[in-house]
């Protein structure tokens, strides 16, 4: 897969990531044990941060191509082993760092 080249494709990919993180949070809630309790909070936090990103991009206030990682990428990398959609986060981050058309 390649990073999204347009704002519309970026927003579509962000929507997909939000949906998937919400689903992961629901699944983790249903299989609640000590480790899963931490994951529910992590998945919900990532979903919230993705929504904020989506809103900024949609409003046109997000700064692309600043050369920095998205703020939530540290958390994503920390939990990479339990985030099956890590590649989507990576693509969003690449588009953010490099810019889009």
Task: Put the structure in a nutshell.
The protein is mainly α and 101 residues long. It contains 4 helices and no strands.
Write a structural description.
The mean pLDDT is 92. The chain has helices at residues 7-30, 34-59, 73-78, 86-98. It contains 4 helices and no strands. Helices cover 68% and strands 0% of the residues. The chain is elongated and about 45 Å long. Helix 1 runs antiparallel to helix 2 and helix 1 (7-30) runs antiparallel to helix 4 (86-98). The chain is mainly alpha-helical. The chain has one domain (7-98).
Topology:
Elements: H1 7-30, H2 34-59, H3 73-78, H4 86-98
Helix pairs in contact: 1-2, 1-4
Any descriptors?
101 residues; mainly alpha; 0% strand
Principal-axis shape equals: elongated
**What share of the residues lie within helices?**
55-70%
Structural class based on helices, strands and sheet pairing: mainly alpha
Whole-Å distance between the termini? 17 Å
Taking all Cα atoms into account, the compactness measure Rg is 14 Å
Question: Which consecutive residue ranges, at least 5 long each, have pLDDT under 50?
Answer: none
Q: State mean pLDDT (0 to 100 scale).
A: 92
Number of domains: 1
How many helical stretches?
4
The proportion of residues in beta strands is under 5%
